[in-house]
Amino acid sequence: MSGHRPFGELIKRLPTARKARIEEKAAALNTALTLHELRKKRTVSQDALARKLAIGQPAVAKLERRSDMYVSNLRRYVEALGGEVEIIARFPDGAVTIAPEKRTTGKSG
User: Fold this and answer.
1) Which of 6, 47, 80, 101 has its CA 20 to 30 A from that of 36?
2) In the prediction, which pLDDT does 9 show?
3) CATH second-level architecture of 35-98?
Protein backbone atom coordinates (compact mmCIF):
# COMPACT_ATOMS: atom_id res chain seq x y z
CA MET A 1 0.00 0.00 0.00
CA SER A 2 2.50 2.60 -1.03
CA GLY A 3 1.34 6.23 -1.03
CA HIS A 4 -1.07 5.73 1.87
CA ARG A 5 -0.27 7.63 5.05
CA PRO A 6 -2.21 8.14 8.27
CA PHE A 7 -3.97 11.52 8.43
CA GLY A 8 -2.11 12.46 11.62
CA GLU A 9 1.20 11.98 9.83
CA LEU A 10 0.13 14.23 6.95
CA ILE A 11 -0.97 16.98 9.34
CA LYS A 12 2.36 16.88 11.19
CA ARG A 13 4.17 17.75 7.95
CA LEU A 14 2.11 20.88 7.22
CA PRO A 15 3.63 24.31 7.82
CA THR A 16 2.64 25.90 11.14
CA ALA A 17 0.69 28.73 9.45
CA ARG A 18 -1.38 26.22 7.47
CA LYS A 19 -2.12 24.18 10.61
CA ALA A 20 -3.29 27.39 12.33
CA ARG A 21 -5.67 28.21 9.43
CA ILE A 22 -7.08 24.67 9.53
CA GLU A 23 -7.66 24.88 13.29
CA GLU A 24 -9.33 28.28 12.89
CA LYS A 25 -11.71 26.96 10.21
CA ALA A 26 -12.48 23.87 12.30
CA ALA A 27 -13.30 26.06 15.32
CA ALA A 28 -15.61 28.22 13.17
CA LEU A 29 -17.43 25.11 11.95
CA ASN A 30 -17.91 23.97 15.53
CA THR A 31 -19.57 27.26 16.46
CA ALA A 32 -21.92 27.41 13.45
CA LEU A 33 -25.24 25.98 14.63
CA THR A 34 -28.75 25.86 13.26
CA LEU A 35 -31.48 27.31 15.47
CA HIS A 36 -32.58 23.78 16.35
CA GLU A 37 -29.02 22.85 17.38
CA LEU A 38 -28.63 26.09 19.35
CA ARG A 39 -31.85 25.44 21.28
CA LYS A 40 -30.81 21.88 22.07
CA LYS A 41 -27.33 22.99 23.14
CA ARG A 42 -28.98 25.48 25.53
CA THR A 43 -31.11 22.53 26.80
CA VAL A 44 -34.42 24.26 26.12
CA SER A 45 -37.40 22.34 24.76
CA GLN A 46 -39.59 23.68 21.96
CA ASP A 47 -42.49 23.82 24.44
CA ALA A 48 -40.50 25.91 26.94
CA LEU A 49 -39.28 28.25 24.22
CA ALA A 50 -42.82 28.57 22.83
CA ARG A 51 -44.06 29.66 26.28
CA LYS A 52 -41.31 32.30 26.53
CA LEU A 53 -42.17 33.58 23.06
CA ALA A 54 -45.94 33.41 23.72
CA ILE A 55 -46.46 31.29 20.61
CA GLY A 56 -47.37 27.64 20.02
CA GLN A 57 -44.81 24.83 19.84
CA PRO A 58 -45.60 24.22 16.12
CA ALA A 59 -44.62 27.85 15.43
CA VAL A 60 -41.24 27.25 17.09
CA ALA A 61 -40.73 24.14 14.94
CA LYS A 62 -41.62 26.18 11.84
CA LEU A 63 -39.17 28.95 12.82
CA GLU A 64 -36.39 26.39 13.22
CA ARG A 65 -37.00 24.97 9.74
CA ARG A 66 -36.99 28.32 7.96
CA SER A 67 -33.99 29.11 5.81
CA ASP A 68 -34.90 32.82 5.75
CA MET A 69 -36.55 34.98 8.40
CA TYR A 70 -36.88 38.50 9.68
CA VAL A 71 -34.03 39.68 11.88
CA SER A 72 -36.62 40.67 14.49
CA ASN A 73 -37.86 37.07 14.71
CA LEU A 74 -34.30 35.77 15.01
CA ARG A 75 -33.58 38.36 17.71
CA ARG A 76 -36.70 37.35 19.72
CA TYR A 77 -35.79 33.65 19.40
CA VAL A 78 -32.20 34.16 20.59
CA GLU A 79 -33.23 36.52 23.39
CA ALA A 80 -35.75 33.92 24.62
CA LEU A 81 -32.80 31.53 24.90
CA GLY A 82 -30.95 34.11 27.00
CA GLY A 83 -28.66 35.49 24.30
CA GLU A 84 -28.45 38.51 22.05
CA VAL A 85 -28.02 38.93 18.31
CA GLU A 86 -25.21 41.05 16.94
CA ILE A 87 -24.90 41.62 13.20
CA ILE A 88 -21.46 42.43 11.83
CA ALA A 89 -20.76 43.48 8.25
CA ARG A 90 -17.20 42.61 7.24
CA PHE A 91 -15.42 44.56 4.52
CA PRO A 92 -11.85 44.34 3.23
CA ASP A 93 -11.00 47.52 5.15
CA GLY A 94 -12.74 46.58 8.42
CA ALA A 95 -15.90 45.46 10.16
CA VAL A 96 -18.98 47.41 11.22
CA THR A 97 -21.60 46.36 13.77
CA ILE A 98 -25.10 47.00 12.44
CA ALA A 99 -27.16 48.61 15.19
CA PRO A 100 -30.84 47.66 15.45
CA GLU A 101 -33.29 50.38 14.50
CA LYS A 102 -34.65 52.27 17.45
CA ARG A 103 -38.40 51.84 17.76
CA THR A 104 -40.42 54.98 17.47
CA THR A 105 -43.75 55.65 19.17
CA GLY A 106 -45.28 56.91 15.94
CA LYS A 107 -45.79 60.36 17.44
CA SER A 108 -44.13 63.30 15.79
CA GLY A 109 -43.22 66.35 17.64
Assistant:
1) 101
2) 82
3) Orthogonal Bundle (1.10)
